Amino acid sequence: FLIFSCSALSVCVRAIDRTELLRYGEHTGDRSLEPGAGTDQRSQQLALDKPLHFYHGKFHSVFVSTRNGAEPTAEYQNNMPASFGMIAAAMGNLDTSNGVGKVYFRQDASPTTLRQVADHINRAFPEDDEVEPIHALVVTWENVEPHESSRRGDVLDGKRNTFQLVVASTETASYAVLLYPRDGLQFHSTLVGGTSKPIVAGFNQGHMMPWSSWSQDSFYNLISTNEVSVRDLSEQTNSGKRGVWVYEIGTSPYFSAIAPGEVTDLPPEAPQEGHAVEEAEEVETVSEFPVYKVYPQEVPQLSGFPEEPEETQPAVYQEPGRTEKIAAHPDPVEPYPAPNQAPPLSHPHYQPENPQVVVVDDGDINVDVFSYNYETCATTRHKCSSFADCRDYTGGYCCHCRPGFYGNGKDCVAEGKPQRMNGKVSGKVFVGDSPAPLEFSNNDLHSYVVANDGRAYIAISTIPPSLGPSLLPLSSLGGVIGWAFALEQPGYENGFSIVGGEFTRQAEVTFLPGDEKLTIKQEFRGIDEHDHLVVNTELQGRLPEVPQGSTVQIEPYTEVYQYGNNVITTSSLRDYTVTLDNGVTQTKSFHWKQTIVYQSCPHDEIPKVDYQAQQLSVDQVFVMYDATNQLIRYAMSNKIGSIHSGEPEQNPCFTGRHGCDTNAACRPGQGNQFTCECATGFTGDGRTCYDIDECREMPQICGPHAICNNQPGTFRCECVDSFQFGSDGQTCISTCVDRPIDHCQAGTHNCDIIQRARCIYTGGSSFICSCLPGFEGDGRICQDIDECQPGRCHQDAVCSNTPGSFSCQCRPGFHGDGFHCSSGSEREKTQCERHRDGALVGSSAFGPRGPRPLPGQFIPTCDALGNYEPTQCHSSTGHCWCVDRNGQEIPGTRAGPGTQPMCIEPSVVLPPVGPTTRPDVSPLPPGSHLLFAQSGKIEHIPLDTTGLTLKKSEAKAVLHIPDKVVIAVAYDCVEKMVYWTEITGPSISKASLQGGDPIPVIQSDLESPEGIAVDHLGRTMFWTDSMRDVIEVASLDGSQRRVLFNTDLVNPRAIITDSVNGCVYLYWADWNRDAPKIETSYMDGTNRRVLVKDDLGLPNGLTYDPQTSQLCWADAGTHKVECITPSTGNRRKVLDGIQYPFDITFYGRNLYYTDWRRDAVIVVDSQVGKETDEFRPQKQSRLYGITAAYTQCPYAQNYCSVNNGGCTHLCLATPAGRSCLCPDNAVDVRCVQRESQS
User: Fold this and answer.
1) ω before 803 within 30° of 0 (cis)?
2) How far apart, in whole angstroms, are the C-alpha atoms of residue 638 and residue 495?
3) Helix (H, G, I), strand (E, B) or coil at 740
4) What's the rounded Cα separation, in Å, for the pair 770 and 793?
5) How does the record describe its quaternary structure (predicted)?
6) What angle do CA 255, 260, 264 make, to 5 degrees?
7) CA distance 249 to 974
8) How is 37-85 classified by DSSP, letter by letter?
9) What is the spatial distance between Cα 168 and Cα 902, in angstroms, rounded to a whole number?
10) Pick from 181, 463, 561, 934: CA 20 to 30 A from residue 409's CA?
11) Kind of pairing between the strands at 419-431 and 532-543
């Protein structure tokens, strides 16, 4: 026998994505293995329609396994070869028992599948004759996870793998094609017998008997026995396509060896491939139930329905991509498109049953939908969809969708593009005989429809177990989206083509035999600015109880839609089967009656098809309730056509089995011929479609004072700050014509970046730009001055130019600071000696052996090596005290005349761990740098003079803190000190980047300090503690400590100050899984408010962009980098598809973030929203906090920057002034507290 086995793989950004896997899932005819885990693994034998060639043998059946048949993994996972034949796609100890992971398999001889597999094989063996397979075995492991993986709240839980094995056979040979997609490969090892073992991938011959003699066991390993080689599976190739591996695994009648593909080189990534990768995050191939990933106590988000920001943006409009390549658009491209927009759609394939025409009473339903009036196109140009043309008629105007789009003219969507629906569900429902109703409000509803195969997916979140199972029979609760975008048969139209996106639906459900009644009311509000159809749903009434643990099966059904004057009605009797957890089945039924009311255009003079009735055929109905995540899912296939029986259409466009891209429309031809045409906004051959970047191809498309943001299939124009769309909905006009603007504070100036220039406000709306010292230019463009002129450094020193500065270093054999160098025979004077000699030179008394101090003059004493003696005494007063290595008095050590303090000799001080003590660590050189934490050290990466390029070869550790876990880092540009938090102590410490020892700052009353920020103007620091759930402030030396917030915090982490606007604002993130949020306040803790709360997952890192005055964050839950303008609330997506970011910082136009999964610092161009570089430290482990260390402090000032704002203790700035606050538990009677003083 032959066994197929699965396991785990690593995430790789530049690999194939899931949309490039062969189609899989139960809707494709796949079978699935029963769930299994650990020693309870599952396998199933499959008889093959065509034999499979493997090594010398020919097989007529195979076993498909969760892990590797019925034998324990520990016996063979790392002890290959095994005694049986096996193809290990990625073998490990896996778990599919949680209801999420699935193993699908099928045999497939369809032309589409065979052609896809043949393309991979022929690309891998370009010198061989083309292979034409006659049979394929497709096995897909979807979202399998490692067995007994440990979990912790914010760490890497929920890792799951998705990958695919295809075995294609001809009459004389078989080939294995292994596909490892990006974002589907998330772990590299599993626990086997309590030990972590790397994944195994390869081919095992096992014992076989060709020619009646036993052959020797043989194992062909695809990878080395380490996790790095596992990671390479998704990044490399032998087929010319990254993440795709092809092998010839058996031939007949003679076999020599496993033959790998021959194309290991990869062509340069073309722009279209980049679009495909970006689009993969937006549109996924959806299995029978789209994968739904949740964390404990997390509000559900449907991964099958790609997420987009849902906040409203009034100054936004959208337009699909239009280029000269798209013949479906005969109209010229308008310079500034209109604000309305359209979304996507989908289509399916089914067999109609015997229909019945039922006449029902419409009833009286009062609705509020849009209506046409007697205006003309000239006065109502914005009431049509931006994808429609307006036409005047005798009685008024009507809207008609343009070629390539469909709908009612008010709402139009691109043909072939997927469609999403979002909304809320509320209700009051009695279950069974319960006397009390279950009430719920604003539960999320998400739906996704694949337009060109008619498959619809619906999910409703936060449904309690007491209600969820009883809602399972009501698949039509979300099935209206299936009718709206059903696959159209020749001569028939789906719901959206007729009614558009604004209508009301009321359904009455009567359950038999108990006569329970439920009313469903839905209001469809059209398409929002995010291309989503919006719906609100309300449920009222009683349901018969379906016991918890039961499953419900709904057989295929048909439904006749009768069309009247702006009213559509249906009525049907439906059966469903309930299977109790004890295996008993019950068949039940309900009567379904619904009315849809809409508004058509009464003035249209174009003849329309007169639909008296159409039949909706629904099959492949799946319903499931996930009690763990309180989520109910429905999935179904929908087709609209004639009510009369007849020969079903065989053209693939009408069956949905065409193989066109998800973003393409299927165009039927003669017989079974068809073509695939990419939807508007996409380009390609129809089999593969790529998003058109309209913003790049037409840079001026949005007009003045607007920003263009590319979206899949479309783009979005947003007015910049202080502008909004005018009455035409296209032109951005100023919102503050009569009000002066401080462009320096608003970030709308055109000065160079803050590392090279400063903006100086001069009143009104005027400002000037001035280059910082060390730079020259007009302030808008500043160039670094090369200070290394002759005579700048000592003649025996080397001068090195740095951005805005320079450094001098004595040549080998000389000693000094670079400005003064002495030869090796002449030791340079130490600090103590210079201090002593300077004091003596300043004296006027001279003795026979040189100068003598005047009475009252302190002269330090130095030891034989020139270092300060640990005990210093004043010869005149008799007082003595202890000093540190820099000669500074140690507080509390001064003793009176006649006694000496016990001072510690420098020789007994423990070796420092700062930058001057270890040979592999050195002080930070001049220039700008990135500082980041990695376990027990802080490292730096220098930036070049432009501030945009990493000098990777010069990166090294600047500070070692053994046995500590450093979490957050912050930089004080005034004293050039780095501050950090660590959680093993826990403590907060600092160290000079010019060299020296770490200095403890706070070591008490801390539990888990995870974020830290420095106010370089007010000389204070702020930090978060996620265990104590507080935010505190203190002076930079740790004194004057005060709690700012101790309420409404669950998991506070990142915290930053806005240094450019005068350090008056504080921002922090709370990654509370139940309600993540980003908040802000003034520095004194007043004016606290929630800035962002929607569409957040795990907002780990925060940073502030001084150029655009935007707050940006990296989210490990939504896998996005986003920014928001705090003053306006305008929010934009910078990058999506990232993996597990921890912290983020800004420098110039670049964002830099640390990633736990990639163990790297990632560089992102914030203006174009793309990754441009990455840095991987030599030691591969998690990276934590990151910050930028500037050459000079950015220019800014506030009320606390001079004389501590006149405060006796803490000075905390506000926009109008400052607050003088006392530390907690203050006992100093001299502390004066004044709040919000200006």
Assistant:
1) no
2) 11
3) coil
4) 27
5) Interacts with FBLN1. Interacts with LGALS3BP. Interacts with PLXDC1. Interacts with SVEP1.
6) 160
7) 66
8) BTTB--EEEEEEEEEEEEBTEEEEEEEEESSBTBS-GGGTTTS-S-SSE
9) 84
10) 561
11) parallel
Instruction: Evaluate the omega torsion of the peptide bond into residue 513 and state whether it is cis, within 30 degrees of 0.
Output: yes
Biggest CA-to-CA distance, the chain: 128
Q: Which amino acid is at 1041?
A: R
What is the spatial order of strands in the sheet that 1009-1015 belongs to? 1009-1015, 1020-1025, 1030-1035, 1042-1045
- Phi-psi region at 239: left, alpha or beta (left = phi > 0; alpha = psi -120 to 50): alpha
Nearest to 220 by CA among 175, 168, 260: 260
Sheet with 1186-1189: strands ordered across? 956-960, 937-942, 929-934, 1186-1189
Assign 3-state DSSP to the chain and report helix, strand, coil percentages, each to 5.
10, 40, 50
Residue with tokens 């964002």: 1151
First-to-last alpha carbon distance for the chain, in angstroms, is 84
pLDDT digits (tens, 9 = 90+) for 979-1031: 999 988 899 999 988 777 889 999 999 998 999 999 988 899 999 998 899 99
3 state SS of 1066: strand
Residue with tokens 């935010």: 1031
Distance of CA 935 to the CA centre of its chain: 24
β-bridge partners, 640: 488, 616
Amino acid letter, 972: D
- Residue whose token pair is 């079978």: 31
What's the distance, CA 1209 to chain centroid?
Answer: 42
pLDDT digits (tens, 9 = 90+) for 131-171: 999 999 999 988 888 876 444 344 345 788 889 999 999 99
| Residue 396 token pair | 């008024």
* Token pair listed for 839: 């004091």
- Calculate the CA 333 to chain-centre distance: 33
- Whether this prediction's pTM lies above 0.90 is answered by no
Contact 483, 494 (CB under 8 A): yes
CB 387 within 8 A of CB 414: yes
Tokens of 262: 């021959």
User: Do 1138 and 1157 touch, CB atoms closer than 8 A?
Assistant: no
Cα separation, 704 vs 336, in Å, equals 10
Opening angle at CA 78, ends 75 and 83, nearest 5: 55
Give the lowest-confidence range in 68-77, 440-449, 597-606, 1202-1211.
68-77
Tokens of 1046: 């101790």
Q: Which residues pair with 390 in a beta bridge?
A: 399
